[in-house]
Write a structure and sequence with these properties.
There is one protein chain. The chain has a 6-stranded mixed beta sheet with strand order 7-8-6-9-10-11, with helices on both faces. Strand 7 and strand 8 form a beta hairpin. The protein has 8 helices and 11 strands. By secondary structure, it is α/β, with parallel strands linked by helices. The longest helix has 35 residues.
């Protein structure tokens, strides 16, 4: 997660402008001073201060743009942000000087800022994991079961909330693929266990939850009670007690449940970012979806 940005004057050793994101509006000024001293010699490498990563780029002359983010955030992705913002800053500087930058700093920076949240979707084969993905993307669900082979990585680029790019790992549920789950757990921000809401699968899902909690301790775990339209579907409250997790009801093959699917993702992102989940109407939810259908 990106916590703050700053435009630095390396010659004067000071912050000219800044934005904050989730750190109570306060800049860690002492750590920034340390970073400025470091950046004068080697701005190309990141530094860790106070449990956060500091990574910058020289924009023009003695002006540098700084991003303060989580240590686990990818340097490659943050450097893309740095490059995009610096290009915009230089353009505005050349057109209107520093005064124009001061007047429009936030609008220059904000469109380029995003962090990545990676969510793993796991569960037994045939419970509706891929159907949930199709529902998120507004695609007509397939009524024919096609098993996921190995793991699919899906970037949901047309869903944007709190500056996050959403990456979802859709794991095959067959026994032969379950060893893959362990290989990815160190790069996961949240886990969704999908159950088909039957008693038989709920017992299997309970075992999956227990196993995942041992291998990915500290990673938030949620569950989706899919196929709630079936007569033998267990109530989500029952599943919640059984799985010891927050459970969201869903019918993943019904497009009318898309808003519910979006709310599930927003809730998970909000908890990850430690911000309050917004109360959005269905209309406001659809505004999170851009007109760009390239991700579909």
């Amino acid at each position: 997660m990106i916590h703050a940005t700053a435009l630095l004057d390396l010659q004067e050793n000071k912050v000219l402008l800044h934005t904050t994101h989730g750190i109570d509006g306060l800049l860690p000024n002492e750590d920034i001073k340390r970073y400025i001293e470091y950046a004068k010699d080697s701005i190309r490498r990141h530094q860790i201060f106070g449990g956060r990563k500091y990574i910058g780029r020289l924009c023009k002359d003695n002006l540098a743009f700084l991003v303060i983010c989580d240590p686990k955030d990818s340097d490659i992705i943050i450097r893309r942000v740095l490059k995009a913002v610096c290009n915009r800053l230089v353009t505005v500087l050349n057109q209107g000087g520093m005064q124009r930058v001061k007047e429009s700093y936030e609008s220059i920076v904000q469109p380029c800022l995003y962090s990545v949240i990676t969510i793993a979707i796991i569960g037994e084969a045939g419970v509706g994991k891929t159907s949930f993905l199709r529902l998120l993307r507004g695609q007509i669900p397939s009524l024919e079961y096609v098993p996921t082979v190995s793991v699919d990585t899906v970037s949901i680029e047309n869903i944007s909330f709190a500056g996050y790019l959403l990456i979802i790992l859709d794991f095959g549920g067959q026994e032969m693929f379950r060893k893959l789950w362990d290989l990815y757990m160190d790069r996961i921000d949240a886990i969704i266990v999908v159950t088909d809401s039957t008693l038989k699968n709920a017992v299997v899902s309970k075992g999956i939850c227990e196993s995942v909690r041992k291998k990915a301790a500290g990673v938030p775990l949620f569950a989706i009670a899919n196929k709630q339209d079936l007569h033998n579907a267990l109530d989500p409250s029952v599943l919640s007690r059984l799985l010891s997790a927050d459970v969201f009801p869903l019918v993943a093959i019904d497009l009318s449940f898309r808003e519910q699917a979006l709310k599930i993702i927003l809730d998970i992102i909000s908890r990850h970012a430690k911000i309050r989940t917004p109360r959005l109407s269905n209309y406001e939810l659809t505004q999170l979806i851009t007109s760009d259908q390239s991700a579909q």
